[in-house]
Amino acid sequence: MRGGRWVGPVVALALVVGLVAGCSGSGSPTTNSSGGGGSSGGGGSSGGGFAWAPFGPDDPQIPTPGWPAYNPFADGNCSKLRKNLDSLGAFGKAMVAVCAAAIEGRQDQWEMAEKAFAAGDASSLADDCLAKKVTGLLERALAWHQRHPGRKPLVQFQRVTGNKGERKTDCGKKETTTTTETTTTTETTTTETTTTETTG
């Protein structure tokens, strides 16, 4: 009977140890795609990801077809991109397909992207700087898919931040500078012509 008085404390101690052991485990952190969107096409968790094309909120909106197509593409806005393809042909289809596959998780679009990219021509953007950015992204995306078939990537968006009016990508700054120089040259020519006529 003397040993019976220890039964209660021993049972209580066992219960405490069990609770502590059960709480000591920790789950693995989860990472979601920055692109949001549903995964209507299925696909498992991401096997890493890749950097998207840089987006500048204050980049130009013209000339077409380059900027109206590039801006929503870089912003990851697939639905808006579909409305601004103009005459981009197969290259535009590749942009839409990669956007849908990587950001919306539509696995069936990867095959479309590969075929369209192979048949497309980046010069349809009518802007060498933008063509280089988009081509680089399409190549990264398709290469990633080859390594991770059936998965959805973690898209790493590159959005330019800063003061309003100054949030421009390198291509946006280049476009603005070129436009300013052209305007200045035109104004100078006009002034010189007017002066000559007045003197005469």
Quickly describe the structure.
With 200 residues, the protein is mainly alpha-helical.
Topology:
Blueprint: H1 7-23, E1 49-55, H2 66-74, H3 78-82, H4 89-102, H5 109-119, H6 128-147, E2 154-159, H7 170-199
Parallel strand pairs: 1-2
Helix pairs in contact: 4-5, 4-6
Largest sheet: 2 strands, parallel
> How much strand content do the residues show?
5-15%
By DSSP (H or I, 4+ residues per run), the number of helices equals 7
Question: What value does the Rg take, in angstroms?
Answer: 28 Å
Give the SSE string. Answer: HEHHHHHEH
What overall form do the CA principal axes indicate? globular
Q: SS-based structural class?
A: mainly alpha
Summed over residues and divided by their number, the pLDDT gives a mean of 76
The strand count comes to: 2
List low-pLDDT spans: 9-33, 35-42, 179-200
Side-by-side strand order of the widest sheet: 1-2
Distance between the termini: 130 Å
Oligomer: single chain
The percent of residues in helical segments reads: 40-55%
Describe the protein in words.
This protein has helices spanning 7-23, 66-74, 78-82, 89-102, 109-119, 128-147, 170-199; strands at residues 49-55, 154-159. It starts with 6 loop residues before the first helix and ends with a helix. The chain is 53% helix and 6% strand. The protein has a two-stranded parallel ribbon. It is globular. By secondary structure, it is mainly α.
Comma- or semicolon-separated keywords:
200 residues; mainly alpha; two-stranded parallel ribbon; 2 strands; globular
